[in-house]
Amino acid sequence: MSPTRRLNLAEVEPVPVDAAACCDLLRQSANHLASARAVAAIDPEGAFALGYDGCRKVALATMLAVGTRPRGDAHHETTFNAAAAVAAKHIDDHDQVCRALDDATDLRRVRHATQYRGETVVTEAAADAIDILDTLLGELSDLVDRLLPR
Predict the structure, then answer these.
(1) What are the pLDDT digits (tens) for 31-46?
(2) 99-142-89 Cα angle (round to 5)
């Protein structure tokens, strides 16, 4: 996990591992990636929203695979930070995925600005969201699969 991001254990709570929910979140994330790529040129806001939401869902699947979920007010940030903690524990070469989760946390700020201040998403931000989601799916899908009970 990035030294600049810390996980407060009070921000997560234990839940039963639900393999079906984890798989469904990964499927949704993969669909969001395909959809974001398809609309990026004509709808950067839509592509960004799909990319960001896909990042959040793959991170949530990672949390759920170890029997935790976010609680409190900062659900999205907690989700990304907790997924980074899981990745750091279970992936030997975790730098790339932890950087991507930090980048997803940064996307959250862009999302907030577009959702609550009406700012426009530039094409580069949509491309970043798509690239980050692609990295997270590549790295965390395998991890979730390994973590789920057989």
Answers:
(1) 999 999 999 999 999 9
(2) 55
Which residues sit opposite 13 in a β-bridge? 69
> Is 140 inside any structural domain?
yes
Taking CA atoms, 84 is separated from 25, 105, 109, in Å, by 17, 11, 18
* Domain limits for position 128: 16-147
Tokens for 77, please give them. 């940030």
Among the listed residues 10, 57, 62, the one whose alpha carbon sits nearest the alpha carbon of residue 36: 57
Q: Could you give the angle at which helices 123-147 and 19-39 cross, rounded to 10 degrees? A: 160
Q: Is residue 9 part of a domain?
A: no
Amino acid at 126: A
Rounded Cα distance between 94 and 110, Å, is: 25
Residue 11 lies in a domain: no
CATH code (residue 57): 1.20.120.330
* Domain annotation covers residue 6: no
Residue closest to 120 by CA, chosen among 133, 132, 110, 129: 110
For the whole model, what pTM was predicted?
A: 0.90
